[in-house]
Amino acid sequence: MKQVVLVTGNSRKVGEAKQSCDLFDIEVIQKTAEIDEIQSHEPLKISEHKARMVYELLQEPVVVTDTFWNIPSLNGFPGAYMKEVAQWFTEQDFINLIKDKEDNTIIFSENITYFDGKEVVRFSKEYLGKIVDPRGTGISIENVSEFEGSTLGEKRAIGGFSHKPEEYIWYDFAKWYSEL
Predict the structure, then answer these.
(1) Inter-residue contact 140 to 78 (CB < 8 Å)
(2) Which of 20, 43, 57, 163 could be cross-linked to 171 through a Cys-Cys bond (beta carbons 3.0 to 4.6 Å apart)?
(3) Among 9, 11, 114, 121, which residue's Cα sits nearest to residue 55?
(4) Region of residue 128 (phi > 0: left; psi between -120 and 50: alpha; otherwise: beta)
(5) How big, in percent rounded to 5, are the helix, strand and coil portions of the chain?
(6) Could you state, in order of their start, the residue ranges of all structural domains in the chain?
(7) Are strands 145-147 and 105-115 parallel, antiparallel or unpaired?
(8) pLDDT on residue 122
């Protein structure tokens, strides 16, 4: 069985990785590392920087993931700052931000970066959704972000993940990694 080291403190991200990697007989080993993450409007730049930093700390091939949120009617807000914004904003705050906007679109971008000390390999996928009245449990943005008829909070409430394994960006990574 192949193994891959996923560096994150987020158990949800580990679960999402495992659901796809399991399909390719890849064991996901979770590790954590304290680094200073850069902030940028370029999600792939953030993810690559993170991968290089954790590689330097751990001295082994690593994979990292980074999530980027974009509300087009708010000029791309909150972008890479979602982690902090979701701690400050309630569900109603997000709804209030777009209540006078015609467009309630939200885009969730998942970025995975693998770095083995020589080669950087990136995977990225965007998921188009909309901001709706709150449903589900979890952090504020997850309860107002609907993708394919359910909010992320509703999926989490029943123990699910944001997407089916075959539809998630982790599937693309696992397929590639299994062929190394």
Answers:
(1) no
(2) 20
(3) 114
(4) beta
(5) 40, 30, 30
(6) 2-178
(7) unpaired
(8) 97
Alpha-carbon distance of 169 to 114, in angstroms, equals 13
Contact 25, 1 (CB under 8 A): yes
CATH node for 2-178: 3.90.950.10
Name the residue among 82, 125, 127, 130 with its Cα closest to residue 105.
130
Whether 172 shows a pLDDT value over 90: the answer reads yes
Q: Model confidence over 98-155: pLDDT tens digits? A: 999 999 999 999 999 999 999 999 999 999 999 999 999 888 999 999 998 999 899 8
Average model confidence (pLDDT) across the chain: 93
Question: Which residues on adjacent β-strands are paired with residue 113?
Answer: 64, 122
- Contacts of residue 149, Cβ cutoff 8 Å, sequence gap at least 6: none
User: Which tokens hold the place of 19?
Assistant: 């659901």
Q: Residue 102: phi, psi to the nearest 5?
A: -80, -25
The answer to whether the peptide bond before residue 78 is cis (omega within 30 degrees of 0) is: yes
**The pairing of beta strand 105-115 with beta strand 77-79:** unpaired
What are the E-state strand segments in 32-165?
Answer: 62-71, 77-79, 105-115, 120-131, 145-147, 150-151
